[in-house]
């Protein structure tokens, strides 16, 4: 990559020459992407090995994490970066041996498993360790060591057995953490919560420039390097941006405290992109090079399993997790496979373009996978963690109201097919978890949103942002309009925070938790509202 942050001229020329189809399928694509993303072309074992005793500074500056809990295994993550803001985290292009340890107790007196893993330079010295053959429904503690350095301790857990009758589960849903908009205070509170798993619903980072004082954080005790004061374009840009975010102590604390299940939205690459179409009108084959860099950095910095490892500009992030017979989680990707937004990506009245039945927000393959999974589900609650608002959300009080073309409202046929699939599969307790909009919403999902009296078929819980949008307000200026225009909208709050959802055999309870400010650190946590929906009787009611 060139120092200007743009793809090198020879790479841009190669992308134009390849064309989209050949780019995605031809052997030339592999060479282009190897150049674009520093992929190893002859295996990852070729690099020399670094003597870990030579690492003079703490390499665990980005913390530890775990993710995607299964009934018999956990996925552990860390990344070595003694100088996190420098290229390659301050390490040479050599592989490093990392020791890991899993225990039943946080003092590591009751060890369960231990082993070694290799932190490869081609993967930015990240480590993904899958530990198998574990007891189900149990908490574990883990840590890493290399040279004289030992990481902090993380806590994770396994899920219950697939067919076990699990009594209860508490999850948290988070989204949208623009570093430059404020402090991650909500994560400090979340780290202290008694939750089983955290779902991150997208916008883990933002591509926008971050100035020397951290934007709205207004640092007086540090100066951020100029390398952050530009939009992310290259693999090195995205890697360093993850390093910036993960140096935040509150984010590290939340990752260490709970297993995360992550999915992306747009800003992990670029605002409001749709499949291979960016917002600036660049050729698709050129944008896919940027997407490949962003996807690779996402994989390197998240606690994801091997099936999610990207191949160039493609990464299958949609996947399914079971929590006994209590809950099935179908994690979606509504960004990578979608049709381009109709009428641009803003607010617009529905029209022939947005109502075109051929349009899709999930892609045909993911849509089939979702509905087929519901047909096979034996779970009481079928939960769909995903990115953008699913329920109809009218933005004004006009007879034909504008709606967001970037949300499911801009893909009405997709939503209709998904709801029809849920009905055909006999899904009685559907819950959609959503991020993106920087506010908290609680919706009743209607069989027909154009008929307010139609049957309630599920619940949508929208988690507000961790920091995006700065402090926000309890009742934004459009609060009254939205509440009047959308009778199925039961709650709307514009503060920052997160939501916890407790599921048991009888009901689901959603607690919307907010902080008063993020532009200054240390704000207290408040429960803004709580709602319940009964199993077998969809519809939200104040708790």
Condensed summary:
With 543 residues, this protein is α+β, with helices and mostly antiparallel strands. Helix content is 20%, strand content 26%. Helix 7 (364-376) runs parallel beside helix 8 (412-424).
Write the layout of secondary structure elements.
Blueprint: H1 9-25, H2 27-37, E1 64-67, E2 74-79, E3 96-103, E4 111-119, E5 126-131, E6 139-146, E7 149-150, E8 154-157, E9 168-174, H3 185-191, E10 197-200, H4 235-246, H5 249-257, E11 260-262, H6 284-300, E12 319-323, E13 327-331, E14 347-348, H7 364-376, E15 381-385, E16 403-404, H8 412-424, E17 430-434, E18 440-446, E19 456-462, E20 472-473, H9 479-485, E21 489-504, E22 507-515, E23 525-534, E24 537-542
Parallel strand pairs: 9-10, 10-11, 13-15, 15-17, 17-19
Antiparallel strand pairs: 1-2, 2-5, 3-4, 3-6, 6-7, 6-8, 9-21, 12-13, 14-16, 18-19, 18-21, 20-21, 21-22, 22-23, 23-24
Helix pairs in contact: 1-2, 1-6, 2-6, 3-5, 4-6, 7-8
Notable traits:
globular; 26% strand; Immunoglobulin-like; 20% helix; 9 helices; 2 domains; 24 strands; Purple Acid Phosphatase, chain A, domain 2; PhoD-like_sf; 14-stranded mixed sheet; hydrolase; alkaline phosphatase activity; 5-stranded antiparallel sheet; disordered N terminus; alpha+beta; 543 residues; Alkaline phosphatase
- What count of structural domains? 2
Tally of contiguous helical segments: 9
Q: Regarding CATH, which class of the largest domain?
A: Alpha Beta
Mean pLDDT across all residues, rounded?
A: 93
Q: From the 3D coordinates, which CATH architecture of the largest domain would you assign?
A: 4-Layer Sandwich
What is the number of strand segments? 24
Largest sheet: 14 strands, mixed
Shape: globular
Might you state the CATH topology name of the largest domain? Answer: Purple Acid Phosphatase, chain A, domain 2
Helix content: 10-25%
Distance between the termini: 54 Å
- Based on CA atoms alone, the radius of gyration comes out at 23 Å
Q: Please identify which CATH superfamily of the largest domain we are dealing with.
A: Alkaline phosphatase D (PhoD)
Low-confidence stretches: 1-11, 17-22, 24-31, 40-44
The amount of beta strand, in percent, is: 25-35%
